[in-house]
Amino acid sequence: MSAERKPWVTSADLNQAYDFIESHPDITSIDLILFDINGKERGKRIPVSSLPKVYESGVCMPASVFALDIKGETIEETGLGFDQGDSDRICRIVPGSLQPIPWKPGVAQAVLTMCNRQQSDGFFADPRLVLTKQLQDLQQQGFNPCVAVEYEFYLQDLHPDEQGNPQPPIMPLSQTRMAQTQVYSLDELDEFKSFIDEVIEVCQQQGIPASNISAEYAPGQFEVNLKHSSDVVAACDQSMLMKRVIRAIAKKHGFCANFMAKPYSEYSGNGCHIHVSLLDNDGNNIFSDQPEVFQHAIAGILKYMSETMAILAPNANSYRRFQPNMFVSMQPNWGWDNRTVALRVPSDTEENRRVEHRVAGADCNPYLVVGVILASILEGVQQQLQAPQAIDGNGFELPLDNPFPLSWPQALEQFDASKVLERHLSANFCRVYHANKYSEQLAFATNITPLEYEWYQ
């Protein structure tokens, strides 16, 4: 090991770098990607000749990358900016994440994760570390999570309508603008076959296990599913990279891919559905073999759902998605094969029993969403919480006896007061996250909308 080599580096890592360069003579540069608190891509582009050095010594990025708000501005109240001299931390390449980018000739990509000052552990504000900590806590109890991530998104025209608003795309074959909701429509899949096929092909090329794409509940809305994985952090890496693929391929085909929680007021919003189960150390499904653990897990998720709302619904637009009869529950409840509740237990074989968490929007950070779900499960098991009765029938028709915080300020207030999240995610992370989103919320609240001028002047 050279004097500069970091403790995480192995000979296999360096061999991977040299082998990649040798086997990809067309690659001239590498995009190094770090996902911030909002799930936005940050990073650097390096010449391919620097790849072995980055594997060996890491690459510097400022800690303040996790103080950036949705607009990319540093929120000084996080304490990660000038208070620390806007200092750097070392970032390392996540093993196995180095892949060519099919839509960028000559460019490859790799995912980064940030280290603390001692370079002995992850940086507390890195969402990947937040998730890793929850995994470790569960694994210490003999529980090994298995997850799958599903995203809904809209394809939209690159050009707005006459009022300047986003609009559904023109279908490639019929050359007519989409205007109807045709859930599970095969005709719509035929219209967008070339786009869908290329998304699946590019995902396969990058090792992203996208299983299928289906037409959803509004014009131009689709859902894409990732296969279940017991490598939970990698599954979240892949879900973020899949968004990158969808956006790029959509643009290539003349569309815009929109992952906003609520792009249209009249149509259903975009969700991020998380499927989760627990396996024992032999790979057996604990939710099937130990029904009491299954019940404790559901109870824990439900009990802390309101406290986690600021992560499940992280932006101002997120809360527009919570409306009656719009395929998202407005209060914590669960049911068997029921899409009108917050937690759905899909109909499947006993050995594949799992919980589908349906509350988060597609604008969420999946590392943090999965992290708070796992933390809630652990709380439920440790406290031996009992799940309420399953909802049978239309959950949307139930009275709102225990609604979520359905506004951004309320959600942030409950997040800030949560001792459970502070204990699991760390007080420092909760402080940074709250400061970041609270600053955004204040800035959003001071903006005067055109509708206010129309109604009140």
TrEMBL record:
<keyword id="KW-0436">Ligase</keyword>
<dbReference type="InterPro" id="IPR008147">
    <property type="entry name" value="Gln_synt_N"/>
</dbReference>
<comment type="similarity">
    <text>Belongs to the glutamine synthetase family.</text>
</comment>
<dbReference type="InterPro" id="IPR008146">
    <property type="entry name" value="Gln_synth_cat_dom"/>
</dbReference>
<keyword id="KW-0067">ATP-binding</keyword>
<protein>
    <submittedName>
        <fullName>Gamma-glutamylputrescine synthetase PuuA</fullName>
        <ecNumber>6.3.1.11</ecNumber>
    </submittedName>
</protein>
<feature type="domain" description="GS catalytic">
    <location>
        <begin position="127"/>
        <end position="457"/>
    </location>
</feature>
<feature type="domain" description="GS beta-grasp">
    <location>
        <begin position="25"/>
        <end position="122"/>
    </location>
</feature>
<dbReference type="InterPro" id="IPR036651">
    <property type="entry name" value="Gln_synt_N_sf"/>
</dbReference>
<keyword id="KW-0547">Nucleotide-binding</keyword>
<dbReference type="GO" id="GO:0034024">
    <property type="term" value="F:glutamate-putrescine ligase activity"/>
</dbReference>
<dbReference type="InterPro" id="IPR014746">
    <property type="entry name" value="Gln_synth/guanido_kin_cat_dom"/>
</dbReference>
<dbReference type="Pfam" id="PF00120">
    <property type="entry name" value="Gln-synt_C"/>
</dbReference>
